[in-house]
Amino acid sequence: MAIRRELLLIIGLILIIAVLIKLIEFFQVNVIEADASKFVMEDVGNKYPGSDISIMTIIQKTNPNGAHYFEVKARVTENPNSPCPERSHIFYNYPAQNFIPQPAEVITSGCSVCAEGICTIAFSEEAIIASHTFPGTGAVTSYINSNDAVSPSVAEKVDKESWLVRWDASGAPSYYLVDVHRNGTILSVNEVQKT
């Protein structure tokens, strides 16, 4: 009986030690991940002042030497409240690795989307541009050009198949709602009178 009790005690201690080791690893990873996020947000904020920025993904990776690092993907939207927001994805490795990082991925530039190939409106910035540059949106373009301080707001519809872009200007008697399908077609353009 004494041997059995000692064996159970040893097994219990081993389990407690294993759990403690896993907890320590968990907290160490989170602290480093938080450091990576903070570093990227500070650097992107300094490089793109006044832009709308956020972290999209943080993925833990291992380099050929067995050391852990994080691949961080950040979103930068310059001129977010304009008719032509410019969105880019910036990639970081934290801590820095001994190889050249990926170049920035340009999502929107020059107020143009779906210029060639299959059109997919995947991001709100693309929906904003499509809502006033695609065929059938001439009334929205006129509204933007004839009002001061026009700003867009975007919401992904519940069905996630389209984006609803609202164009509004303070002091204007109406606003426009443009429903932009993810495949790049304009589903509707509606002028709504303010009450």
Write down the overall mean pLDDT.
Answer: 88
Largest β sheet strand count, sense and barrel closure: 4 strands, antiparallel
- pLDDT under 50 segments (min length 5)? none
Helix tally equals 3
Strand order of the main beta sheet, please? 1-2-3-4
Tell me the series of helices and strands, N- to C-terminal: HEEEEHHEEEE
Q: Percent range for helical residues?
A: 25-40%
How far the N terminus sits from the C terminus, by CA atoms, comes to 85 Å
* Class by alpha and beta content: alpha+beta
The fraction of residues in strands falls at 25-35%
Q: What is the global morphology?
A: elongated
Radius of gyration: 25 Å
Number of strands: 8
Task: Describe what this molecule looks like in 3D.
With 195 residues, the chain is an alpha+beta fold. 33% of the residues lie in helices and 33% in strands. It contains three helices and eight strands, in the order αββββααββββ. Strands 1-2-3-4 form a four-stranded antiparallel beta sheet, covered by helices on one side. It has a four-stranded antiparallel beta sheet with strand order 5-6-7-8, covered by helices on one side. Strand 2 and strand 3 form a beta hairpin. The longest helix has 46 residues. The protein is elongated, with a radius of gyration of 25 Å. The mean pLDDT is 88.
